[in-house]
Amino acid sequence: MRSGLLTAVVLTLLLGGVIFVARERGRGDLTKLKAELGAKAAIPAPPVIQFGGQEALVLQRSPMSGGMVPEFVTATFLPGRGMNLLQLRAFLPQKGEVDLLASPKLEDAAKLINGAALEENGAGSLGLGGALEFPWGSSLGGVTSADGKNVMATWQGHGLNVPVTVKGLNSGMAVGGLLLTRAADSVESNVMPDGDSTKAVFQAGAFGGQWLSKTEITMTALLSSHILEIKVVAKNTGSEAEPVGVGWSPRFAIVSGDRTNTRLKLPSGERVEVGADGRPTGKLLPVNDTSYDYTGHTGATLGNKALDASFVHLKPSLLDNGPVVELRDPSSGYGLRLTALTSAIKCISVTSPAEKAVVTINPRFNYDDPFGREWSKEPDTGMMVLQPGESAQWKVRLEIFSLDDGPGAHF
Questions:
Q1: What Cα–Cα distance (Å) separates residue 271 from each residue in 38, 66, 276, 283?
Q2: Do the strands 334-340 and 324-329 form a parallel or antiparallel pair, or are they unpaired?
Q3: β-sheet bridge partners, residue 235
Q4: Dihedral sign of CA atoms 25, 31, 37, 39 in order
Q5: What is the dihedral of CA 129, 68, 398, 358, to 10 degrees?
Q6: Which of 21, 205, 312, 349 is 20 to 30 A from residue 6's alpha carbon, by CA?
Q7: In total, how many domains does the chain have?
Q8: Are 85 and 97 in contact, with CB atoms under 8 Å apart?
C-alpha cells in the first residue's frame, strides 16, 4: 500500500511538472506571438499620395463586355490640382488594360508637380494628363513684366495681371489659366449603374486679385463603359462683369506607338496663322488641300511630322451633336471620339510633337490670345462675358470604340 501510494504521489508530481512546463512554454510562445504581431502592427502604412493637399479621386468600373470590345475602366482626377484628369485606363481586347493618357504613375506624378518651383505656376500640370484651363484656355498675351514672371492683358479697359505659366516663353504669353494649382473646395462622388460620377466645386473668387469679379466653378464627370463626359459650369458670383474661357488639354497616348498608321480626323474649319514669335497673326487660313487638312471622310495619317495648330469656325457634320475630333489607332484596334457638346466651344487645337506617340487635343471657348489687337477684324474670339449672376457651360463627350465593323466604327 505504501509502495502504491508513493507511486501515485510521484506520478502526480511528474504530471504537475509537465503541465507547469507546458504552461510556461505556452506563455512564452504566446508572448513571442504577441511581440511579433505588435512588431508587424508597428510597421507604418505607406504614405498617402496627395496633390495640393488632397488625395487623387478614382472613378472606376468593371468591364462587362466579356473582353469583346474596348471599355473604359478607370479615370483618375486630381481635386487638389484643378481636377486634372491624370490617368484614363481602358480595356482593349488585343492588349488588356492600357493607359490612354501620356501620364506617369501616381507617385511619379507627385514628384513632378509637387515640387516647389512648379507649385507656384502650375507648369507641371500642363505637361501630363488632361488639365482643365480657366478663366481662359490655351494662351493669353499682353505686356510682359520686367522680370518675365507676369503678363498684363487688357480687357475693356481693365488690366489683368496673370503669371507666365511656362518659363522661358519669350513671346509674352500666359498659358493654361489660373485653375492649375487650385484645390477644390468640395468634392463628392456617386456610384452609377455602369460606372461612377463626381462633382467638384471651386470657390475661386477673383483668383487672388488676378481676375475680375468672383467666380464659382463646378466640374462634373461621368464615367461609363464607352463614355466619359466632362462638364464645367462657371458662374459669376461677384458684382461686375467678367470674361471667361474654358479649355481642356488631355494628352492622349498612341497605345501602339505607331504614328505612321494612326489617323486623325478634324471638323471642317479654318486654321489660325501663327507668326515666328509664337503669337497668332489674326489671319485665318483654309485647310483644304494643305498639310493641315484632316477633314476628309477618313481623316489623314499623322505620319512623323509635327502638328501644332488651332482650328476655328468649326462646322459639325450633319449627324453629329457638335464638332468632332477622332483619333484612330488601327494597330491597337480602337478609336477615340471627342465631341464638343456646347456651341460656345469655338476653337480646337491639336498638338503632336514629331515622332512622339502623343496627341494633345484642346477643345475650348476662346482663340489663342483672345484679347490681342491682331483680332480687330474678328468679331468673336470666344471669351464669354458673364454679368453678375450669369453662368456659362462647357461640355465635351469622349467615346471609345472598336475599329471592327459596327455602329461605332464608322468614319
A1: 67, 43, 16, 9
A2: antiparallel
A3: 216, 391
A4: negative
A5: 40
A6: 21
A7: 1
A8: no
Q: How much is the pTM?
A: 0.86
What is the Cα–Cα distance from 245 to 262, expressed in whole angstroms? 31
Round to the nearest angstrom and report the end-to-end CA distance of the chain: 108
Give the Cα separation of 165 and 181 in Å (integer). Answer: 11
For residue 22, is it within any domain? no
> 315 in the Ramachandran plot: left (φ > 0), alpha (ψ -120 to 50) or beta?
beta
- Predicted confidence (pLDDT) per residue in 77-111, tens digit: 999 999 999 999 999 998 999 999 999 999 999 88
What pLDDT, on the 0 to 100 scale, is given for residue 1? 43
Yes or no: say if 200 and 218 are a contact pair by the CB < 8 Å rule.
yes
Query: Grid cell 467666380 — which residue?
Result: 215
Q: Is residue 3 part of a domain?
A: no
The domain spanning residue 236 has which CATH number?
2.70.98.10
Residue 34 lies in a domain: no
Range of the domain at 285: 62-402
Asked whether 392 and 217 are in contact (CB, 8 A), the reply is: no
**How many CB atoms sit inside 10 A of residue 323's CB?**
24
Torsion of CA 125, 131, 136, 140, to 10 degrees: 40
Which amino acid is located at 16 in the chain? Answer: G
| Spatial separation of the C-alpha atoms in residues 200 and 52, rounded to whole Å | 14
Does 25 map to a domain? Answer: no
Cα 159 to Cα 143, 145, 147, 172, 242, distances in angstroms: 10, 13, 18, 15, 12
Phi-psi region of 252 (alpha: psi -120 to 50; beta: other; left: phi over 0): beta
Cβ count near 312 (within 10 Å): 21
Amino acid type, 130: G
Which residues in the chain show pLDDT less than 70? Answer: 1-47, 115-120, 166-171, 405-411
